[in-house]
Design brief:
By secondary structure, this protein is an alpha/beta fold. It is 57% helix and 8% strand. Helix 14 runs antiparallel to helix 15. The chain is flat. The model has no long low-confidence stretch (mean pLDDT 91).
Amino acid sequence: MKEERKQEIRDALERFCMRYGSQKKATAALKDISEGTISTILNGRFDKIGDDMWSRLEAQVMPATADYSLADTSARLNLLGYFRKMKEDSSMMWITGPAGVGKSTAAREFVSKGQNAFMLTCATDMVRSDFMQGLSAAVGLDNTGLNVRETLYAIIRHLVTLERPLLIFDEADKLRDDVLMYFITIYNELEDRCGIVFLSTDSIKRRMEIGVSYNKLGYNELYSRICRRFVPVKPATRQEVIAICRANGIEDRKAIHNVLVEADDAQYDLRRVKRSIVKQKGLKSLSNQ
C-alpha cells in the first residue's frame, strides 16, 4: 500500500477517534483493531503496521464513497436534513424509501462527519444479544462480561452523558419482533435526550399496520413513538442522475446516456447508477491510454 494512502487512512482514523471522544471508545467500535495499533498509526509509525492491518482499517474508517462523488439529490438532502433535525430536537422518526434510494449512504455520510452520531445496520438473523453487541460497539462501549439487560442500560447511561446524540438504525424493518420492541425501552429512557432515526423500505408499513390492528405486543406503543407516520424519500430523477454523472467527471453525452439507460432499467436504483458510472469512468480511462 502506498504511503499516500496510508496517510489518508491515518487521517480518517483520527477523525474516527474524534467522533468517539477517545481512542479507547474508538477501539470498541472497530473490529479486530487494538488500541495499541491505533496509537502506533496516529503517531505516524507506519512501518510497524502490516498491509493486512492497513486493509482491515481502511474498510472500517474510510468512507465507501471516498473515490465516488455524491450529488445533491433530493433524497440525500432530505435525509441529511432529517438527521440534523432529529439530532437537534432529540426526536424519533421512521424514514422509508425503496432500496437504492441512498438511505444508507446518507446515514454513513452524516455519521462520518458528525460527533455523537452512531449507526447500526440491522439484520434478519439478529437475536437480542447480537443487537446489543452491535449497538454497544457502534457507540464505542465494550460490553464484555455484561448480559443483555446490563448492556442495554450501560448504553443508555453512556448516551445520556453525550451532547445531542443520535442513533440511526439502518434496515430496521429486518429486526425480529422481540428485538424491535427494545426501541420502546430505549425511547422511554432517552426521550428528549437522544435522537433516534429508523431507515427501511416501505415493507414496514404493512407490518406495523398488521401489528397495530391485531394488538400485537408493543406495536401500538412503537407506532405512537414515531408519531404514527412514516416519512418517505423518493428515488433520484433523471436530472439528478445526470448531476451525479457530472460530479464524477462524466461529461460525454453518450456515456451519460448509457448511465441513464441503466438507471431507467433499474428504477433509478443508485447502486446500479454507481456501478454504471464506475464502468463508464473505466472505459474513459482505457480510451485515454
